[in-house]
Amino acid sequence: MKYIKYLFLGVLFGIILTKSEVVSWYRIYEMFRFQSFHMYGVIGSAVIVGTLLVQIIKRTKMRSIAGTPIFIAPKEPGFVRYLAGGTIFGMGWAMTGACPGPLFILVGNGVVVMLVVIASAVLGTFVYGLVRHRLPH
Amino acid sequence: MFELLEFVRQPWPWYVAGPLIALIMFALIWFGERFGLSSNLRTICSMLGAGKYADFFRFNWRADIWNIVFIAGALLGGALAHLFLSPDIPMSLSPATVTELQSLGVEEPGEYMVPTSVFSWESLLTLRGILMLVVGGFLIGFGTRYAGGCTSGHAISGLSNLQIPSLVAVVGFFIGGLLITYFVLPYLLLV
Fold first, then answer.
1. Pick from A47, A51, A124: CB nearest B139
2. With 80 as the cut, is the pLDDT of residue B87 above it?
3. Is B15:A38 a contact under the CB 8 Å cutoff?
4. Hey, are the CB atoms on B14 and A42 less than 8 Å from each other?
5. What's the domain count of chain B?
6. At what angle do helices B39-47 and B136-147 cross, to 10 degrees?
7. Can you give the pTM of this predicted structure?
8. Cβ contact (<8 Å) for B135 and A50?
9. Fewer beta carbons within 10 Å, N or C terminal of chain B?
10. A136: nearest CA in chain B?
11. Closest CA to A88 of B153, B186, B179, B35
């Protein structure tokens, strides 16, 4: 039962990303061709509101639903992994028109062939886990 | 009630979607977790027994089940929106995009959420389909774990927390995305 709230949030997330067409390959193509403001508006306004909310959490020392102090882990320092990994992900994002969330949301939208993309992504993560010691981070 | 449903059924503008996504992030943090979807791919590897092959997958994945439930909910939400909240009208894409994609052989851009000629089972038998779906998916899985996050973990959560590494990752997202969109997709779509 403790998972119900995550299911509920996930359902909302799936509806939001479907209704705003963020899951559409065309919207990602438009974004990378700078032909529409839509995706920049979605991500930009999410970051602006998100920044405000994170500041509120930190400045009011807000506690979690369980009453524990909230700690937002900073990203590990580094450069190469973020630039190289980010570039590799960006290539996949442009090809499939989907990032990890939309991969699943598209299956729900009836694009069942996305299951193959998900399987491939799981394999990609697995291969990263095998070779990560040999990669610069 | 009917009018409200009709209102919700329209495509949602960016200024509705963006703040709502931020609220999803906020709720997950309030629940004591974080907003990041690509880590589910690692969790799935561990659930499937990848820990036998690499220590990267030997972690307490049971602590991340909440995120698998979240993404299962997202799939369900996609289905609900598709079945009950979708108007039968094409997307309103930018005219430049529509003309350009038509010249690249994409039929009826925006008629459906994805170009059906690429996103179909038959397409998997073509070079284009293998590259865009199978290789594309692999790059998503490899790249997100290498970078330690995707659009949710870096572009939204990381930037909202003013993290420089996330800014570097987002620059990377665009380097990769622009390379493919400008130099690969025009040829791939015409195949």
1. A124
2. no
3. no
4. yes
5. 2
6. 100
7. 0.97
8. no
9. N
10. B146
11. B179
Q: How far apart are the first and last CA of chain B?
A: 48
Residues of chain B with pLDDT > 70, as a percent, come to 100
Contacts 24+ apart (CB under 8 A), A133-137: A135/A81, A135/A84, A135/B146, A136/A80, A136/A81, A136/A84, A137/A78, A137/A80, A137/A81
Quick check: B147 and A89 CB within 8 A? yes
Last residue of a domain, one of B64, B86, B108: B86
pLDDT at B167: 98
Letter for the amino acid at A111? V
Best mutation target among B25, B30, B138 (most A Cβ atoms within 10 Å) is B138
The tens digit of pLDDT for each residue in A35-77 reads 999 999 999 999 999 999 999 999 999 999 999 999 999 999 9
What span, in angstroms and rounded, lies between the C-alpha atoms of B31 and B25?
Answer: 10
B78 and B13 co-located in one domain: yes
Question: Both B2 and B66 in a single domain?
Answer: yes
Cβ A122–B141 below 8 Å, yes or no?
A: yes
The full length of chain A comes to: 137
Range of the domain at B133: 117-191
Please check whether residues B79 and B126 belong to one and the same domain: no
For residue B52, being part of any structural domain is answered with yes
B47 pLDDT band, cuts 50/70/90, is: very high
Contact B93 A36 (CB under 8 A): yes
Asked if residue B134 belongs to a domain, the reply is: yes
Strand partners, B62: none
Q: Residue A93: its chain B contacts at CB < 8 A?
A: 140, 151, 173, 176-177
Same domain, B81 and B149: no
